[in-house]
Amino acid sequence: MTITSFTSTNDGTVTIDGSNYTVQNANQSYSLSEPDTNTLRFQLQSGDYWNGSQRSEIAGNTVYAAGTQINLSYDFMVEPGPVDDANGPGEWTVIGQMHEDSLTGSPPFAVELVNGDHMAIDIGTSNPVYLYTDPNPLVRGQYYSMQVQVKFANDSSGFLEVWRNGVQIVDYHGPIGNDLGTYWKEGVYRSASSQTMAVDYRNLQITTGSAPAPTSTTSSTTTPTSPVTSPSSTTPTTPSVTKPVLTVADNSLWVAGRGGTVDLGTKVSTTDSNDRVTVHITGLPKYESITDNLDGQTFHGKDITLTAAQVNSGLTLTSTYRGGGHPVAELTLTASATDPSTGAVATAAPQIISVTDPRPATVSTTTTSSHDDHAVTDQQPAAATTAVTPTTSQTIEPTDHQSAAANAGFLASRAFELLQQHLDPAASSLATTAAHPVMAADHPSATGTTMASLASQSFALLNQYLAAHTGRVDPGQIVAAVSQATGWGHDTLLARPQH
Known about the structure:
By secondary structure, the chain is mostly beta strands. The protein folds into three domains: 3-208, Jelly Rolls (Sandwich), CATH 2.60.120.200; 245-356, Immunoglobulin-like, CATH 2.60.40; 364-495, no CATH class. The chain is built from four helices and 31 strands. The protein has helices spanning 308-312, 401-423, 449-468, 475-483; strands at residues 3-5, 13-16, 19-24, 32-36, 39-44, 49-50, 53-60, 69-78, 93-100, 109-114, 118-122, 130-133, 144-151, 159-164, 167-173, 182-190, 197-208, 245-248, 252-254, 260-263, 266-269, 276-282, 288-292, 298-299, 303-307, 315-319, 328-338, 345-347, 351-356, 364-371, 374-381. The strands form six sheets. Strands 1, 2, 3, 6, 7, 9, 10, 11, 12 and 16 form a ten-stranded antiparallel β-sheet that branches. Strands 4-5-17-8-13-14-15 form a seven-stranded antiparallel β-sheet, with no helix packed on it. Strands 19, 22, 25, 27, 28 and 29 form a six-stranded mixed β-sheet that branches. A hairpin with a 2-residue loop joins strand 2 and strand 3 (19-24). The radius of gyration is 39 Å and the shape is globular. It starts with a strand and ends in a 16-residue tail after the last helix.
């Protein structure tokens, strides 16, 4: 293995023996380093996330077709530090994996740490299936030499053989993988942890095609168990896993858009503390996300998986919906438990949570009137209103000149009442609007046809304001104009544009 091009930046490219690998880490200065031209060092600390998980890895750009024999060799060392704490349900630590192309979930081959610092070989594609678990913990600070020969095929032609320090620990023949291409990833990939962990890799080599069995290299300080052979179809393993219990406080929730949040109210439990429990959630729309209270991770996408610890810490759903409709998201939650020793899986019945995003709180009401080809639209925040009884039209017919004079004050008050009803229908009505007396000063009393003209001009002025005014109507201007009744004949107010 010779590193000919190196970068520690996330999404950057590292070149090893002519093959390119993409960097996947949290972009910290310590995430990835190159101690020498044959060695890469990966380090994870609490809060170092990539794509929703704590991860510092490189992913090979070369995808090997299903049915191809892949020969992999490398050395790895877990640096001294606290014993790995990924021991609870739904927790994991992966230190090297062949990952299937375009498929989420567990890889078809992975080297993991379980039950503390015990190395295990996993061939699960959606849940762990351990072919080998070391009864002794690995030695921190010591390099282990790994040789792997594998053919991923979902039939009897598939196989996996693994040697550690020249001693074969896995000899499996049978279905493995999902007939998809695979690529190599090395580094550290784990569930949430507050620990700091560093792993070194050196001397990586990958070839394809038939190859002889590896020969012994450095002797191991731990004694592996006997190689695991293909499981017998006549003697199935008795499951030792317990179905988890998923509880949902409310299956019908609503959340305000534009940043609103709601507690999903979910919990998951099991009576078998050895099981690894996860909750799979599908159906999350792109305008919603879920954040756990354990470590503050935020998850996006239609298909996500959370650990039991994340679920039980409390899940908060956030909506950024900005439309005016009422979209409903149907979230399907499925809890599964896996026995870490046998690989047996038990799944609870799925539960559905419906999450509705309501319309924004403020809407508009529209009132349109037309007059002389003018349209007026009045938009106001919606509010609880008091119904207003429509006012029937009234015809004023003065019987003599004296009664017409008395009607001038009535016309002014009536104009003001109608204006108030137009301006504030929610707060007043004709039955409750107080009369506004109008005092006409310094103008002689009008009689005869003059008062009939005043009545017509009073309502004409009101109509002009209601139908043609594009801004806010000033009731004071109406009252002032009506109060100067006898001066209308000499005023050009009606002829002036009002917008």
